[in-house]
């Protein structure tokens, strides 16, 4: 039996370190839930989460020179670290770090964005009890780490089955996180259900595509598929229909995660319903991971497809081009008629998926580097923008009542986020710095020069032209112009419209099912993020009778800007500074990401 | 019997599952459609493994099973939460988010 002795596989642990640190910290976080006393749990979890993501990023930086010199395959190619994959890992870790900062912020209201117990039925006495006893759902931090780890793996694997598992590892925590909003619980649960059902459908399509590719090539490793096709060593000769169907299904699964039309239907609903810090995390990091995975799959599989039949390759490119055009059109046109800030940002995210696809559709040589830069620029602007949304809140006041009548009364209670665009009128005066940062993020998303978004879009459109798709780049520029219009509309409302003439604010019915948050002192919430008072009532809206909260017609909902307790303010500041630096001195990062196009098979 | 029949059966089951997801209204039934799609995939994996004469496909089927189980846990948790809130598991009733 000597020949059957166990041979331990050789594993390059260092190359796996970024993944191990993040996913391992997620496991440790689950244990912390069991062993750390409730009082210290939240701080412990936040420190662990931030440390893990920073550690992952540090390992990426440490590995970078090695990988740029020589890419490695670890665990039999399950993790394939090329400069592109490692760069995507680094970007995801960085964006997740910023996203967790926003998640961790309790703001001056003393409450984070998450339900005390997400399993409690909204509006029941059990929920009241959970809130009053100060329960907290600290499980969100391990869930965030698992999601971030899954994303990092998703972006850096060559093995379709590992990609499928990474897809689930990143998706399942996100489904749960979507359902945990403290306010507007019904919307939050609805978002989770929609995301879950459509997400599960998309991953089923993805895995059936993998099965068909396996049937065609006898392997699920992308590079091996390409080799076997080129060598003609295929188990099922002449069944290229399997390859075509498989590649299409896998692409559809990935396009769903990116939020490309016609697989975008979930995006606006989920982005609106999920807790806003989670929306920011999801919008930035999931898109980065999914786009990186799409680039890897398309570029590696295209070698095989090209070898089987150049005509099929051309048709695949047509599919990507059509999806890109549709995505840009739907994102910008429907986005321009939205009245809700979160929904508007969701359609903007769809439009950005279209711009990214424009860059990818060219199949040009520099796509990897321009895509990485785009993902970074889009990600920091998105996280920053959603962080600003978390700070703009509704506050209920009764006319004539003293402003500081203590925590027992309903007056001055800070409610959920004021997401109607009309409610944002006059924000420029209440919180000039916050408005300036938000304006910067919007301008970056619009692609105005001297912001990161301009360089990013330039790179994407240059990618299309280098592949000979001039007209697609022109369409992209046109779509950008339409997009500029809807970003500017929001800016005009914030900066130039006086807050007092704003129409009545509409509170969605679901927001009122959630009982009033008591225990919030008015004095701590009535200050603007920049320290100036936000007492001036900005909106006068009669609120219809609520199902649970006793809101009378005499009460008004005003818009206030709550002060961040630090983390979110840091995240916004970092995002704003990074947006400017990437826009003014892009060469710093462009030189780095230029390495990402090396070693493309 | 020709082994390609199993591939055809897998495709048919997958199509039935996909149709269920797209047409049925009850969240639980929609979810069962997804499970049917995943199990059709397993059948395809195992059949292809038999055709190619290697074990990769059979191992992959196990991975898919584990993922499906994990998906059930999360999915049912979400559906049950919604059911407790609204006394309904119909995807048509879940319609607050529009536009």
Automatic annotation (TrEMBL), chain B:
Question: Where would you say this protein principally sits, based on its record?
Answer: membrane
**GO molecular function terms noted in the UniProt entry:** NADH dehydrogenase (quinone) (non-electrogenic) activity
Q: Which reaction does it catalyse?
A: a quinone + NADH + 5 H(+)(in) = a quinol + NAD(+) + 4 H(+)(out)
Residue stretches in coiled coil: none
Gene3D superfamilies attached to this UniProt entry: 1.10.287.3510
Keyword Transmembrane carried by entry: yes
Identify the domain of life.
Bacteria
Q: Does the keyword Transmembrane apply?
A: yes
What is the annotated localization of this protein? Cell membrane; Membrane
Q: In what way does this protein cross or attach to the membrane?
A: Multi-pass membrane protein
Keywords, sorted A to Z: Cell membrane, Membrane, NAD, Oxidoreductase, Quinone, Translocase, Transmembrane, Transmembrane helix, Transport
InterPro entries named among the record's database cross-references: NADH_UbQ_OxRdtase_chain4L/K (IPR001133), NUOK/Mnh_C1-like (IPR039428)
Membrane spanning residue stretches: 6-23, 28-48, 60-83
Q: Give the Pfam families listed for this entry.
A: Oxidored_q2
Q: What is its EC number?
A: 7.1.1.-
What family is this?
A: Belongs to the complex I subunit 4L family.
Which proteins does it associate with, and in what oligomeric form? NDH-1 is composed of 14 different subunits. Subunits NuoA, H, J, K, L, M, N constitute the membrane sector of the complex.
Function description: NDH-1 shuttles electrons from NADH, via FMN and iron-sulfur (Fe-S) centers, to quinones in the respiratory chain. The immediate electron acceptor for the enzyme in this species is believed to be a menaquinone. Couples the redox reaction to proton translocation (for every two electrons transferred, four hydrogen ions are translocated across the cytoplasmic membrane), and thus conserves the redox energy in a proton gradient.
Q: What is this protein called?
A: NADH-quinone oxidoreductase subunit K
Q: What gene name is listed for this protein? A: nuoK
